[in-house]
Amino acid sequence: MPAMPEERAGAGRIVYRNALALPHDRPDIFQRLSHWAHRQPDRVLLSEPADDERRSISYGQALARAHALRKRLVSRHGLRKGDCVAMLAPAGIDALVLKLACLAGGFVHTALPPFPFRAGVHDDATRPFLRAANPRLIVAPDNHPAIAGMGAVSVAGLTAALDCTAGGNAEELDASPDDWAAIFFTSGSTGAPKGVPITRGMISSNQTAIATMWPFLTVQPPVLVDWLPWHHVFGGLDNIFKMIWNGGTLHVDATPSAATMDATVRLIGEVSPTMHIAVPLGLRLLLDRLENDAAAANAFTRTLRAIFFAGAGIDAELWRRLAAFRDAHGDFRILSGYGATEAASTICLSPAPLEQPGELGHPLPGHRIALVDVDGRSELRVAGPNVAPCYLIDGERVDLPLDEQGFYCTGDAALLRTRSDGVSIFAFDGRLAEDFKLSSGVKVRTGPLRAGLLAHCAPLLDDIVISGENRERLVALAFPSVAGRAEPNLAAVLAARIDRWNRQNGGSSTAVARFALADAPADRTRGELSDKGQIVQSRYLRNHAEIFEALQAGSGQAPSSA
């Protein structure tokens, strides 16, 4: 595995890059669709649930329908290159065809988050998104309230009876790498949601770089079973375009839950995925099912080449389970990465199978990363062709937070870690925005503290929220895992675990004075849980300030030895 070359960039800054070069040949994503549609027109591009069966669309059909829908959008709705089309439909064939039609016509596609638009009205929840994207057309599922309340167009009416007979001979768009292809929104957990324009060149550089780092994607067309929502850049840009770029197939699955796992396992057995892309929520539920079903586990790993997850988010106990599953059931690789909406999803990828959780990997080919001191921690900053041109806020273009050397400031801390093979990689070190100071002025590094406590209390907790800003001591709210809920004396066991933690980490910035068990999960509808299944600490603290005030006042439980 190659090392990361270093270069001096002035002011004592060391910049790291990938030893692999980014190829100059970076075709447009729509060209990749056309390539596969002519080379393998009958290969399934995407399938989706349909009653008790599944329906699918092939590459040839997708190209023809995209051209036909582009023509309809122009003739019926007067769209021109650069106009924005907003989509409220979930991941599936209709959403795919509209996404591809926008690429064919040079329209800017945005997938709006479903919850703010659930009532289909113009209000304080929806206006920030609409002002940022300024859509010329909104498309929604049949019977969605937005059709009556916002003048949205029915997706069924828009895509019905498309004339696909001339699809293969459609006029090709004169597209530039600088043309905007999509707008995705950041979570908005710390303020108003920000639109991030994604250019066609960002998509091309992202997918070219991924294929360069992970050539196994090009050896055989990848097959992916995926539930990630398409209003996030991970699922709605990276995953679907990774399939199109490499001639693969994406099978849309239901959001994971205990109730959906049987159907997911059946689907996996039918389609034999070659890779699995997941976040902790989905991985945990899948392992709950597969660890107790050897036949299902063997079906899952039969053709599996890699499991990929966002390296910043996995806890030590989930990593242990995943590694044990790999050792027991297959020859697949465990890989991770790191990214942001502002970077077309991806900034770092694993150059080799992981040794431990928290590894972010190497920068993508063609990109540079700098670690810059920010109040005693090293912020990861990135520069390269994947970085977005601006934010969109209130209908205005706003600069990204770039430093004096043009690097995008991610707000995440990282460090260099040396693997057992002697190669250095970047490792996650928490989010700077989650850090806070006690009343003494001592800084609390929330990310590493949460990770340390979760590892110390494994496997009893899924998450823990830490509070204490401008107070004298730390308090915590613990969210039990399945194993924790099965422990009859959970509070007492945790009291003993946290007591041991405190004796080993006795400083005011690490010791937990009081804790309580959460009596309900984080509420996604209130912004407390991301679509990736992770608690948004800042939002949870704001929504439940009274819990943490009560803990500071003496409620809950103090750590104690068993």
From TrEMBL:
Molecular functions per Gene Ontology: medium-chain fatty acid-CoA ligase activity
InterPro entries per record: AMP-binding_CS (IPR020845), AMP-dep_synth/lig_dom (IPR000873), ANL_N_sf (IPR042099)
Boundaries of every AMP-dependent synthetase/ligase domain copy: 34-392
Pfam family, one: AMP-binding_C_3
Signal peptide start and end residues: none
GO biological process, one term: fatty acid metabolic process
Family, as annotated: Belongs to the ATP-dependent AMP-binding enzyme family.
Protein's UniProt name: Feruloyl-CoA synthase
Organism of derivation: Pseudaminobacter salicylatoxidans
